[in-house]
Amino acid sequence: MQFYVKDIMTTELVTIKENISIRDAIKIFSSNKISGLPILDQDYKLVGVISASDIIKNKSSSAFFSVSYKGETDFECLQESKFLDHPVSTVMTKELFCIEPGATIAKMAKIMYENKIHRLLVSEYDKLVGIVTTFDLLKLIATSDENIVV
Predict the structure, then answer these.
(1) What gap in Å lies between CA 2 and CA 105, rounded to an integer?
(2) Residues 46-98: pLDDT tens digits?
(3) What residue spans define the domains of the chain?
C-alpha cells in the first residue's frame, strides 16, 4: 500500500510566537509531549522552528547544563539560567524544510535523511497545514499490517 505525508502528519498543530521565552517553549514541549514547535511572527507568518536540540546545542546554554540525551531531556538544571528568559527567536532554526501533503513517504524520508532533521513542516498553498516527524514514520512502520510501499 502506498502512503503519503497526509496519511501520517499531525494536523492539530501547537505553534508559538517568536517572542515567547525559551522557558515557556520548554513548558509547552513538556505539556504536549513534543520536541519541536513551529514559530510564527506577529502577523502569524511562519518564521522558524524550535526543537529541544536547538536549545541544547546553543552555546549560551552550554555553561548551565550537561545532558545525556536518551529521548528525554532534563531541563530542570537550567531553571536558574537567564538563558531561558531569552525569546525563542534567538535559538530557533530559520531554515525551514517543508513538504506537501501529497508527497510520498519516500520523498519525506529522503528530505529528512539528507538534511539530518527529524521534522518537516507540511504546507499547502503557502499555508501551514501540519507537521510530520520521524516518530510518525516509525509509528507507521511499527503499526501497519500492510506491506508499505515507499
Answers:
(1) 8
(2) 999 999 888 887 756 554 444 444 455 555 555 556 888 899 999 999 999 99
(3) 5-143
**For 11-74, where are the alpha helices, taking DSSP H only?**
22-32, 52-57
Per DSSP, 90 falls in state G
Taking the C-alpha atoms of residue 117 and residue 45, their distance in angstroms, rounded to an integer, is 22
- The pLDDT of residue 65 is 46
**Topology given in CATH for the domain delimited by 5-143:** CBS-domain (3.10.580)
Of 8, 2, 95, the closest CA to residue 49 belongs to 95
Cα–Cα distance between 129 and 124 in angstroms, integer?
7
Task: Check the CA dihedral 28-33-39-45 and report its sign.
Answer: negative
